[in-house]
Amino acid sequence: MMLTTTARPAPKTSAPGRLSPGVRRITLDAAGVPLSALLIEPVDGRPARATVVALHGGGMSAGYFDGQAHPDVSLLALGARLGCAVLALDRPGYGASAPYLPAGQPLLEQAATVRAALADARDRHVTAPLFLLAHSFGGKLALALAADAPSGSFVGLDVSGCGHRPAASAGLLGRATPPAGLRRLNWGPLRLYPAGTFRESGAVVAPLPRREAESAVEWGTLFPRLLPRVRVPVRFTFAEHEAWWRHEDADLVDLAAQFPAAPRVLVDRLPSAGHNVSLGSAARAYHLRALAFLDECLDAGARAAAR
């Protein structure tokens, strides 16, 4: 797929913020498009057991996974303490790629761009097995990447804030004047977030690219094509106060049934959490569960290799 990379004046992006100790900013080459990212490696210098590739949601940035409002919030810091490398990407249309893709990209074009960036990451920065951990629109991207990936590309994926039956219209996204209730959809009750979350949010939130917002309505036609092609273990997490997606028991049973080729599909609920789970007070609980699932995926892979 050819990508147009004509540079234009940069749109407003999130301001660089504080980073957890050990986190560094890098730039990946996605077939001529620069993708900025945050990278941390295991704190004790050991080889990483795996690399967690973290993909943020719409209107956020890689900093979503390195929240600074409380020491327990950062996925990057926790993953490094538990022996993993964590690579959080600014998705296409965000960060360093915004001047090249000022309107962003729809889902399948993002998958092509990120696939090229991950090839560069494997060449220059990471060598361990890759595990996708993704939120909201990033969850759609992770599923698209896994659906078309050659065998062995990923050991599994963990998705939060994304389902298949919408509870609110994707047409609410990208409007010049945000409609009433959008904050409730994106955050849920504000008491679920540590003090200081919204003071620090300037380094985390980012403008939602136009083409990404427009493509959000296509998920209903894309997921029936993508999900049956996923052949790695999958785990979904739905926050207690998730309002973008339907997550009654019948919805979750039907969601799991969309993965006939996946060796394992888990669906979990996270109490006392809103849509932006990785910034909330329940972030550590969610990240620990996700990293435990990564361990299970690695163990299953080792058993399969032994057989």
Task: Explain how this protein is built.
The protein is of the alpha/beta class. The protein is built from 8 helices and 8 strands. An 8-stranded mixed sheet has the order 1-2-4-3-5-6-7-8, sandwiched between helices. The N terminus is likely disordered.
Write out key terms for the chains shown.
globular, 307 residues, alpha/beta, 8-stranded mixed beta sheet, disordered N terminus
Topology:
Layout: E1 24-30, E2 33-40, E3 51-55, H1 75-81, E4 85-89, H2 107-124, E5 130-135, H3 137-147, E6 156-160, H4 182-187, H5 210-215, H6 219-226, E7 234-239, H7 249-256, E8 265-270, H8 283-306
Strand content: 15-25%
- The end-to-end span amounts to 38 Å
- What sort of overall outline do the alpha carbons produce when their principal axes are compared? globular
Mind describing the biggest β-sheet?
A: 8 strands, mixed
Rg over CA atoms, rounded to whole Å, is 18 Å
Q: What strand line-up does the widest sheet have? A: 1-2-4-3-5-6-7-8
Quick structural overview:
This protein has 8 helices and 8 strands, in the order βββαβαβαβαααβαβα. With 307 residues, it is an alpha/beta fold.
